[in-house]
Amino acid sequence: MLKRVEARQVRTGMFVEAIEGAWQDPFLSKRRFLLRREIDAQKLRKSMTGVIINTSRGLDIDGLPGGNIEIDTKAARETIQKSMQVLESVFGRLQHGDGISVDQVAPVISSVSKSIDQNPTVFLSVTRLKSKDEATFLHSISVSALMILFSRHLGLDETTVQMLGTAGLLHDVGKLEIPLEILNKEGPLDEDEIKMIRDHPEKGHAILSRQEGMSEIVLDVCLNHHERIDGKGYPRKLSEAQVSLHARIAAICDVYDAITSVRPYRAPWSASQALKWMLGNEGHFDRRLLKKFALCLSVVAVA
Ligand SMILES: [Fe+2]
């Protein structure tokens, strides 16, 4: 569907069919293109009055896929729906102390991996919308997809990529032990509640350690995804040298998904706002890795 948007509403991920007014930039003078880079979006916002976008080929004004990307969106939704069912049953088994094996989540990893490969923009847009009940599952699927996307971008070997995808799915399993009222609480948390939330990496690690043959990568990511480069993370306040590459990747993907998600009680940040905030958040992330993450997202036209 074609729509006219005001220049100030232009964002990356939109498919531009036509631009109003004269335009000298050789890149933007191509009349039809997918707006991939924030710098080009800024140029359009500054110099144009309005743009015609095609929502069947890119994002709509609200940052979600337009109504006509039906086929891609439907496929992504189906993948996510099936993945959520498998994940729900895996988390349920873990919660009841039953065993699981990595093989049980393998079909989820392969379908998420295929889907993110085919159309990352659509896949990540669909997972942005999280209702309270499904937030943890959808967050897990989204982090898994981001970790697969990013680790492939970094050129890691395929076995490690699959393990990082699995780690993304299982990293927050310790949240199963936190009551939903606390996880979904809108106001400030008291000290006990903060402690309960901060215990989730260790609780998750304990749950996963009981599973036979659980990969070291999955265990490491589960325990250390809230550690920070400046040593102010939790649960163990690890120093920079102690935080593995896998945990650093997870920390970036985890926070990025959390702040770009659409939640009922707060407005989401756009990809570029999120990356800007993360880059400005000194000491939290591995900056070199974070810059590569930004590049990875700009390549797939999410940022
Ligand atoms: Fe977490």
Automatic annotation (TrEMBL):
GO terms for molecular function: phosphoric diester hydrolase activity. The keyword Phosphoprotein does not apply. Keywords: Hydrolase. SUPFAM superfamilies: HD-domain/PDEase-like (SSF109604). The keyword Hydrolase applies. Signal peptide: none annotated. Residues 114-303 form the HD-GYP domain. PANTHER family: CYCLIC DI-GMP PHOSPHODIESTERASE PA4108, CYCLIC DI-GMP PHOSPHODIESTERASE PA4108-RELATED. This is Phosphohydrolase.
